[in-house]
Specification:
This protein has 8 helices and 9 strands. The chain is α+β, with helices and mostly antiparallel strands.
């Protein structure tokens, strides 16, 4: 026992090295891996790690408690945060103002054949733009009243000026009662002032008012080159 106690740590290390020299290196490596794996499942190893971590956190907390509470540092941090938020607000406001000042992009993408599609014609207008341009071209700006082409049941197309106060006066007592539709339709029109009912065809007159055209849902009346509708 005395001999074992007198062995110094250096001698123990030398003895361990000499014992490992005669062994297979692969076996030595496997033994080392086994010892390392056992350290992960060993309760003692985990208790040692927990104790070390607890001591480390305790030292950090104690060192932090020893430091004075710096008001100036906190004020600097708050000032920095305020500057960052101010810059963000200014950048957002500037971007929004730029977007509001520039008109929206209404150009539609090119179609498959490469031609550009007019967004207003595609979305807002029920008919092609050429239709409205044609109607504008039919108007004479030096004459009162617009011009309309009316086609009756006989297929004849006639240009008439639209409603004015004069034709409204002579037709204010006329009321459309019904339409008897056929190849030559008849319109049933009542004169509410004289309490008379007229069965008329296209081209016939009620007094000075001419039946210009008869449709399934309305009758076009003309008077001195102007027109109005009864529905």
């Amino acid at each position: 026992m005395a001999t074992e106690r007198s062995v110094t740590p250096e001698k123990q290390l030398l003895k361990l090295i000499e014992e490992q020299k005669g062994k297979n290196p692969a076996a030595v490596q496997a033994h080392a891996l086994k010892r390392r794996g056992m350290s992960f499942v060993s309760p003692g190893a985990w208790l040692g790690r927990f104790s070390f971590s607890k001591d480390w956190f305790r030292r950090k907390i104690e060192s932090f408690r020893g430091q004075p509470f710096d008001i100036k540092s906190i004020n600097r941090i708050l000032l920095l945060c305020a500057c960052v938020f101010t810059l963000y607000f200014l950048a957002s406001t500037t971007t929004a103002l730029i977007q509001l000042s520039s008109p929206p992009e209404l150009g539609a993408p090119a179609s498959e054949n490469g031609s550009s599609v007019d967004l207003m014609e595609r979305v807002f207008l029920k008919k092609a733009v050429s239709y409205y341009l044609e109607k504008i071209g039919e108007r004479d700006i030096f004459k009162m009243g617009a011009v309309r082409k009316v086609t009756g049941a006989d297929g004849v197309e006639t240009e008439m000026k639209v409603t004015s106060a004069r034709i409204l006066d002579v037709t204010e007592n006329l009321k459309l009662v019904g339409i008897s539709w056929s190849s030559e339709p008849d319109a049933i029109i009542e004169d509410t002032r004289d309490t008379k009912t007229f069965f008329v065809k296209t081209g016939q007159k009620i007094g000075e008012v001419k039946v210009q055209a008869i449709f399934k849902d309305k009758v076009v009346l003309s008077y001195q080159g102007e027109e109005t509708e009864l529905k």
